[in-house]
Design brief:
The protein is α/β, with parallel strands linked by helices. Helix content is 32%, strand content 30%. It contains seven helices and twelve strands. Strands 1, 2, 3, 4, 6 and 7 form a six-stranded antiparallel sheet that branches. Strands 8-9-10-5-11-12 form a six-stranded mixed sheet, sandwiched between helices. Strand 2 and strand 3 form a beta hairpin. Helix 3 packs parallel to helix 5. The radius of gyration is 18 Å and the shape is globular. It starts with a strand and ends with a helix.
Length: 253
Protein backbone atom coordinates (compact mmCIF):
# COMPACT_ATOMS: atom_id res chain seq x y z
CA UNK A 1 0.00 0.00 0.00
CA UNK A 2 1.29 3.46 -0.86
CA UNK A 3 1.67 6.15 1.77
CA UNK A 4 2.69 9.77 1.40
CA UNK A 5 5.66 11.64 2.84
CA UNK A 6 5.87 15.25 3.97
CA UNK A 7 6.42 16.43 0.42
CA UNK A 8 3.24 14.70 -0.73
CA UNK A 9 5.01 12.19 -2.98
CA UNK A 10 3.86 8.61 -3.02
CA UNK A 11 5.94 6.14 -1.04
CA UNK A 12 6.04 2.43 -1.70
CA UNK A 13 7.20 -0.14 0.88
CA UNK A 14 8.52 2.68 3.04
CA UNK A 15 10.70 4.20 0.30
CA UNK A 16 9.96 7.30 -1.72
CA UNK A 17 8.88 6.70 -5.30
CA UNK A 18 11.45 8.56 -7.40
CA UNK A 19 10.76 7.28 -10.92
CA UNK A 20 7.38 6.73 -12.57
CA UNK A 21 6.82 5.72 -16.18
CA UNK A 22 3.12 5.58 -16.98
CA UNK A 23 1.79 3.72 -20.02
CA UNK A 24 4.91 4.46 -22.08
CA UNK A 25 4.84 3.66 -25.78
CA UNK A 26 7.76 4.47 -28.06
CA UNK A 27 7.52 3.96 -31.80
CA UNK A 28 10.10 4.56 -34.51
CA UNK A 29 9.65 4.75 -38.26
CA UNK A 30 11.97 2.68 -40.41
CA UNK A 31 12.03 1.31 -43.96
CA UNK A 32 9.73 -1.54 -42.95
CA UNK A 33 7.18 0.78 -41.33
CA UNK A 34 6.50 1.43 -37.66
CA UNK A 35 8.61 -0.32 -35.03
CA UNK A 36 7.33 -0.36 -31.45
CA UNK A 37 10.26 -0.36 -29.04
CA UNK A 38 8.15 0.06 -25.89
CA UNK A 39 4.54 -1.04 -25.80
CA UNK A 40 2.46 0.63 -23.07
CA UNK A 41 4.76 -0.17 -20.16
CA UNK A 42 4.63 1.01 -16.56
CA UNK A 43 7.83 1.20 -14.53
CA UNK A 44 8.65 2.53 -11.07
CA UNK A 45 11.74 2.84 -8.90
CA UNK A 46 12.04 4.15 -5.37
CA UNK A 47 14.70 6.18 -3.63
CA UNK A 48 17.78 4.07 -2.76
CA UNK A 49 16.70 1.15 -4.94
CA UNK A 50 18.93 -0.89 -7.28
CA UNK A 51 16.83 -2.14 -10.20
CA UNK A 52 18.14 -4.42 -12.94
CA UNK A 53 16.33 -4.30 -16.29
CA UNK A 54 16.99 -7.54 -18.14
CA UNK A 55 15.98 -9.01 -21.47
CA UNK A 56 17.28 -10.09 -24.85
CA UNK A 57 18.64 -7.70 -27.45
CA UNK A 58 15.76 -5.76 -28.99
CA UNK A 59 13.52 -6.16 -25.95
CA UNK A 60 13.43 -2.41 -25.27
CA UNK A 61 15.97 -2.15 -22.44
CA UNK A 62 18.07 0.66 -23.89
CA UNK A 63 14.98 2.59 -25.01
CA UNK A 64 13.68 2.40 -21.45
CA UNK A 65 16.98 3.74 -20.12
CA UNK A 66 16.87 6.57 -22.66
CA UNK A 67 13.41 7.52 -21.39
CA UNK A 68 14.67 7.68 -17.82
CA UNK A 69 17.62 9.84 -18.81
CA UNK A 70 15.66 12.25 -20.98
CA UNK A 71 17.67 11.15 -24.02
CA UNK A 72 14.48 10.18 -25.82
CA UNK A 73 10.82 11.14 -25.40
CA UNK A 74 7.80 8.82 -25.51
CA UNK A 75 5.35 8.62 -28.37
CA UNK A 76 2.71 8.49 -25.65
CA UNK A 77 2.66 8.22 -21.88
CA UNK A 78 4.31 10.07 -19.01
CA UNK A 79 7.85 10.10 -17.57
CA UNK A 80 7.89 11.59 -14.07
CA UNK A 81 11.18 11.84 -12.19
CA UNK A 82 11.16 13.20 -8.63
CA UNK A 83 7.84 14.87 -9.36
CA UNK A 84 8.97 16.48 -12.65
CA UNK A 85 7.14 15.43 -15.85
CA UNK A 86 10.27 15.41 -18.00
CA UNK A 87 8.35 14.36 -21.14
CA UNK A 88 7.03 17.94 -21.20
CA UNK A 89 10.47 19.58 -21.19
CA UNK A 90 12.07 20.90 -24.37
CA UNK A 91 15.56 19.82 -25.44
CA UNK A 92 17.35 22.68 -23.69
CA UNK A 93 15.42 22.10 -20.48
CA UNK A 94 16.13 18.37 -20.70
CA UNK A 95 19.86 18.98 -21.07
CA UNK A 96 19.90 21.13 -17.92
CA UNK A 97 17.70 18.67 -16.01
CA UNK A 98 19.83 15.69 -17.07
CA UNK A 99 23.08 17.34 -15.98
CA UNK A 100 21.71 17.95 -12.50
CA UNK A 101 19.75 14.77 -11.86
CA UNK A 102 21.24 11.87 -13.84
CA UNK A 103 24.65 10.20 -13.93
CA UNK A 104 25.42 7.66 -16.66
CA UNK A 105 27.75 4.65 -16.79
CA UNK A 106 28.37 2.77 -20.04
CA UNK A 107 29.74 -0.60 -21.14
CA UNK A 108 32.77 0.94 -22.84
CA UNK A 109 33.38 3.61 -20.18
CA UNK A 110 33.39 6.59 -22.61
CA UNK A 111 36.17 8.40 -20.76
CA UNK A 112 37.84 11.10 -22.85
CA UNK A 113 41.26 9.66 -23.71
CA UNK A 114 43.11 12.99 -23.83
CA UNK A 115 42.04 13.99 -20.31
CA UNK A 116 43.41 12.53 -17.10
CA UNK A 117 41.09 10.53 -14.87
CA UNK A 118 40.55 13.45 -12.51
CA UNK A 119 39.87 15.78 -15.43
CA UNK A 120 37.24 13.33 -16.69
CA UNK A 121 35.53 13.42 -13.30
CA UNK A 122 35.66 17.23 -13.10
CA UNK A 123 34.28 17.73 -16.62
CA UNK A 124 30.57 17.28 -15.75
CA UNK A 125 31.01 19.79 -12.92
CA UNK A 126 32.40 22.32 -15.41
CA UNK A 127 29.36 21.85 -17.66
CA UNK A 128 26.67 22.12 -14.98
CA UNK A 129 28.15 24.71 -12.60
CA UNK A 130 26.52 23.08 -9.58
CA UNK A 131 29.75 22.50 -7.68
CA UNK A 132 31.72 25.71 -6.94
CA UNK A 133 34.95 25.96 -8.95
CA UNK A 134 37.18 25.93 -5.88
CA UNK A 135 35.58 22.65 -4.67
CA UNK A 136 35.65 20.64 -7.89
CA UNK A 137 39.14 19.16 -7.66
CA UNK A 138 38.65 18.07 -4.05
CA UNK A 139 35.27 16.56 -4.85
CA UNK A 140 36.79 14.62 -7.75
CA UNK A 141 39.52 13.25 -5.48
CA UNK A 142 36.93 12.22 -2.90
CA UNK A 143 34.85 10.42 -5.54
CA UNK A 144 37.92 8.60 -6.83
CA UNK A 145 38.77 7.62 -3.26
CA UNK A 146 35.28 6.19 -2.84
CA UNK A 147 35.76 3.90 -5.83
CA UNK A 148 39.31 3.00 -4.81
CA UNK A 149 41.40 4.61 -7.56
CA UNK A 150 42.54 7.96 -6.19
CA UNK A 151 46.12 6.83 -6.89
CA UNK A 152 45.24 6.77 -10.62
CA UNK A 153 43.87 10.33 -10.69
CA UNK A 154 46.57 11.91 -12.86
CA UNK A 155 46.92 9.09 -15.38
CA UNK A 156 45.29 8.94 -18.79
CA UNK A 157 42.44 6.42 -19.02
CA UNK A 158 44.33 4.22 -21.49
CA UNK A 159 46.86 3.43 -18.74
CA UNK A 160 44.15 1.96 -16.51
CA UNK A 161 42.69 -1.54 -16.56
CA UNK A 162 39.10 -2.05 -17.68
CA UNK A 163 37.93 -2.33 -14.10
CA UNK A 164 39.74 0.85 -13.11
CA UNK A 165 38.24 2.70 -16.06
CA UNK A 166 34.76 1.59 -15.04
CA UNK A 167 35.43 2.78 -11.50
CA UNK A 168 36.49 6.14 -12.94
CA UNK A 169 33.25 6.23 -14.95
CA UNK A 170 31.23 5.54 -11.78
CA UNK A 171 33.05 8.40 -10.04
CA UNK A 172 32.32 10.68 -13.00
CA UNK A 173 28.62 9.69 -12.92
CA UNK A 174 28.43 11.05 -9.36
CA UNK A 175 30.17 14.34 -10.17
CA UNK A 176 27.10 16.56 -9.75
CA UNK A 177 25.56 14.44 -6.96
CA UNK A 178 22.64 13.21 -9.10
CA UNK A 179 19.57 11.47 -7.75
CA UNK A 180 19.78 8.67 -10.30
CA UNK A 181 22.58 6.57 -11.78
CA UNK A 182 21.74 4.89 -15.10
CA UNK A 183 24.04 2.06 -16.12
CA UNK A 184 23.93 0.55 -19.62
CA UNK A 185 25.55 -2.92 -19.67
CA UNK A 186 28.22 -1.72 -17.20
CA UNK A 187 29.69 -5.19 -16.67
CA UNK A 188 29.55 -6.33 -20.29
CA UNK A 189 33.20 -5.54 -20.97
CA UNK A 190 34.59 -6.85 -17.67
CA UNK A 191 35.75 -10.22 -16.36
CA UNK A 192 33.54 -11.87 -13.75
CA UNK A 193 35.59 -10.79 -10.72
CA UNK A 194 35.73 -7.16 -11.85
CA UNK A 195 32.04 -7.26 -12.77
CA UNK A 196 31.18 -8.41 -9.25
CA UNK A 197 33.22 -5.55 -7.78
CA UNK A 198 31.42 -3.08 -10.06
CA UNK A 199 28.00 -4.37 -9.01
CA UNK A 200 29.02 -4.01 -5.38
CA UNK A 201 29.93 -0.37 -6.03
CA UNK A 202 26.43 0.22 -7.41
CA UNK A 203 24.88 -1.48 -4.39
CA UNK A 204 26.99 0.72 -2.12
CA UNK A 205 25.63 3.77 -3.95
CA UNK A 206 22.06 2.73 -3.10
CA UNK A 207 23.04 2.30 0.53
CA UNK A 208 24.26 5.91 0.33
CA UNK A 209 20.82 6.95 -1.00
CA UNK A 210 21.21 6.88 -4.79
CA UNK A 211 18.79 5.12 -7.10
CA UNK A 212 20.50 2.87 -9.66
CA UNK A 213 18.78 1.48 -12.75
CA UNK A 214 20.96 -0.94 -14.67
CA UNK A 215 20.34 -2.55 -18.05
CA UNK A 216 22.09 -5.89 -18.35
CA UNK A 217 22.12 -9.20 -20.15
CA UNK A 218 23.40 -10.74 -16.92
CA UNK A 219 20.64 -12.74 -15.26
CA UNK A 220 22.49 -13.62 -12.07
CA UNK A 221 22.51 -10.22 -10.38
CA UNK A 222 20.25 -11.04 -7.45
CA UNK A 223 23.13 -10.83 -4.96
CA UNK A 224 23.24 -7.07 -5.56
CA UNK A 225 19.93 -5.72 -6.85
CA UNK A 226 16.68 -5.12 -4.97
CA UNK A 227 14.48 -5.88 -7.99
CA UNK A 228 14.64 -7.28 -11.51
CA UNK A 229 12.34 -6.12 -14.31
CA UNK A 230 12.28 -8.32 -17.40
CA UNK A 231 11.34 -6.92 -20.82
CA UNK A 232 10.34 -8.85 -23.92
CA UNK A 233 9.12 -7.29 -27.17
CA UNK A 234 8.78 -3.89 -25.50
CA UNK A 235 6.62 -5.13 -22.64
CA UNK A 236 7.26 -5.83 -18.97
CA UNK A 237 6.84 -9.58 -18.53
CA UNK A 238 8.02 -9.84 -14.93
CA UNK A 239 8.78 -7.54 -12.01
CA UNK A 240 10.42 -9.47 -9.18
CA UNK A 241 11.67 -8.13 -5.86
CA UNK A 242 14.73 -9.70 -4.22
CA UNK A 243 13.45 -9.76 -0.62
CA UNK A 244 16.72 -9.78 1.34
CA UNK A 245 18.42 -7.11 -0.75
CA UNK A 246 15.29 -4.96 -0.92
CA UNK A 247 14.89 -5.02 2.84
CA UNK A 248 18.54 -4.15 3.46
CA UNK A 249 18.44 -1.25 1.02
CA UNK A 250 15.15 0.24 2.23
CA UNK A 251 16.33 0.11 5.83
CA UNK A 252 18.84 2.79 4.87
CA UNK A 253 16.53 4.81 2.63
Amino acid sequence: MATHGKNGKARTNGAEKLIELRHITKQYMNAAGTFTALDGIDFEASTAEFVAVVGKSGSGKSTLLNMLGGIDTPTSGEVIIDGTPIHRLNQNQLAVWRGKHVGAVFQFFQLLPTLTVIENVILPMDFCHIIPINQRKQRAIQLLEQVGIADQAYKLPTLLSGGQQQRAAIARAQANDPLIILADEPTGNLDSHTADATLQLFKDLTIAGKTVVMVTHERDVTAWVSRTVTLADGKVVSNSAVPNNREATYALA
